[in-house]
Amino acid sequence: MKMKYFFSLGFLFVSVFVSAQWQSKYKSETLIDGNDTLRYRIMYPKNFNEEGNFPVVLFLHGAGERGDDNASQLIHGGKLFATDYLQEKFPAIVIFPQCPKDSYWSKVDVDRNTYPLTLDFKYGEGPTKPLQMVMDLLENTIGEPYTNDDQVYLMGLSMGGMGTFELLSRKPEMFAAAIPICGGGDPNTVTAYAKSTPLWIFHGAKDNVVNPDQSIEMVTALLKAGAYPKFTIYDFANHNSWDPAFAEPDLLPWLFSHKKGTTN
Predict the structure, then answer these.
(1) What are the DSSP calls for 52-118, one per residue?
(2) Which one of 57, 98, 229, 236 has the fewest beta carbons within 10 angstroms of its own beta carbon?
(3) Angle between helix 129-142 and 159-170 (nearest 10)
(4) Per residue in 102-161, pLDDT tens?
């Protein structure tokens, strides 16, 4: 019995150590604008040097990872980019900003009285402060000489999927490709980026938090605008459709295959 307890503690120690290993690849940073602070984690490629020319990936987390610990935003997706294999195969600068608890990436009224949520997007009122600071952070990052302006990518899940669609509408010429997962947006804004930014959109058919109709509306609008987005809807998945999406073997090869100027 004691031996089992010993091995359990050993396994726990190893698990925590391995977790800390990949998380430690992301440097903890802050961007300050007056009284507002954007906390973010950033991972640089192995053997990074300023003479390089690296792609940039921005990842927007979901509502459950909001806060100020500058760690929770790595829970879903952080490890996806941080394995040794993927760092070697797709060397990139990867940014995970964290939205404060009392705010949201997208400008949207969220009615939580019913599920799935009722969403009313209001892009016309301007971006939220966290999204504006994310845009500033991204501009600063891609302004560095070691980044490749033709390979700037965007991903997000749930609230971050909504932020992905809004950010595309506000910066339509910035991204080489984007992956919104279980999100939604204003379908009236897709013409800004429909023909310039390839998208791979994911949703779970059983999603009882963000209705899959939200992604279907965006796909329909993109098709009407002359775009040809990839769209994967998992018949078995609820809201956590990011799990099977992250397991797609072609996910990152598809993302990194695009450069500005490629079409859907």
Answers:
(1) --EEEEEEE--GGG-SSSSSGGGTTTHHHHHSHHHHHHS--EEEEEE--TT--SS-EEEE-SSSSPE
(2) 236
(3) 60
(4) 999 999 999 999 999 999 999 999 999 999 999 999 999 999 999 999 999 999 999 999
Query: Bridge-partner residues for 29, per DSSP?
Result: 40
Question: Is 131:29 a contact under the CB 8 Å cutoff?
Answer: no
Looking up tokens 């009615």 gives 111
- Angle made by CA atoms 126, 129, 135, in degrees to the nearest 5: 85
Supply 146's token pair.
């070691």
> Helices (H), strands (E): how many in the chain?
8, 10
Distance CA 106, CA 131 (A): 7
What are the angstrom distances between the C-alpha of 59 and each of 5, 15, 41? 39, 25, 10
The residue type at 186: D
